[in-house]
Design brief:
This protein is mainly α and 271 residues long. It is built from ten helices and no strands. Belongs to the ABC-2 integral membrane protein family.
């Protein structure tokens, strides 16, 4: 008598199922939901209200510039911090160890996390865009600019997510994850033209350092999408540099993926 082989779920189906579970778990934590979406919007309201002057004769206000730039901050905080702290917590509380005994592969696990981050990032970006348009009169882009927004958003989200997973490897305890992960987040906002604009106010060497990381290119790209072409004069190269933006973000997607493969561990003992 022969026994029929049971086909195991594919990596894709496991990843989709894991993404659904991750999303439900997040939505059940009302505190996490409120602070994840409210904090970037609150910062935008504060910066936009305090710094509302216009840029010379462009007719663009500082609040509109912050509205565009803060989308990069929303993606970074949602993807990088949420992912890094989430993986660290899963490793510490034994979730990863239990999943290791199931058909779920590392790829399926990361896919599930990525689905969660994409959902959160879309919602985060939508909130910030609505605040910018409804409260600060940020211009509504045309169709061509929305296409740029699409690839810029996807590359930014994947790069930040991959880097968040990689950095989680150095987080020893989940309770310290927020403090560790927010240090590079806050530092990069100040040197990348998100909180300080025009970025040319910074020393040239600091702009060079910022150019090595994705946040400068993310914020610059989103300013291209939502601001008129006259605002490119306030960028470091006086150009939008979309081609270089795509290359840098693409490179960070590859770097983050490689780091994930090298550093990912199911348990602390695997290190």
């Amino acid at each position: 008598m022969t026994t029929a082989a049971v086909a195991l779920p594919s990596t894709v189906s496991n990843g989709l199922s894991r993404g659904w579970v991750e999303t439900l778990q997040f939505l059940r934590d009302r505190t996490a939901v409120i602070f994840t979406f409210a904090f970037p919007a609150m910062l935008l309201l504060l910066f936009g209200t305090i710094f509302g002057d216009s840029y010379d004769d462009t007719g663009v206000s500082a609040s509109q510039v912050y509205s565009a730039s803060m989308i990069a901050y929303g993606i970074l905080s949602t993807a990088f911090v949420t992912m890094g702290s989430g993986v660290a917590l899963d490793r510490e509380d034994g979730t990863l160890k239990r999943l290791h005994g199931t058909p779920i592969t590392p790829t399926a696990y990361v896919m599930g996390k990525l689905i969660l981050v994409l959902i959160l990032s879309v919602a985060e970006a939508a909130i910030l865009i609505l605040v910018g348009i409804l409260i600060f009169d940020m211009p509504v882009p045309d169709a061509a600019h929305w296409l740029t927004f699409a690839w810029l958003f996807l590359l930014s989200t994947f790069a930040c997510t991959a880097c968040g997973i990689a950095v989680s490897a150095i987080v020893k305890h989940a309770r310290t994850a927020g403090a560790i992960l927010n240090v590079p987040v806050v530092a990069l906002q100040f040197i990348s033209g998100v909180f300080i604009h025009p970025i040319t106010q910074l020393p040239s060497w600091l702009i060079t350092v910022a150019s090595l990381f994705p946040v400068k290119w993310m914020s610059q790209g989103f300013r291209y999408v939502f601001l008129p072409d006259s605002m490119k004069q306030y960028e470091a190269a006086s150009q939008w540099e979309l081609g270089r933006t795509a290359l840098v973000l693409g490179a960070w997607c590859v770097i983050g993926l490689v780091l994930c493969l090298v550093t990912f561990r199911w348990t602390e003992k695997d290190r």
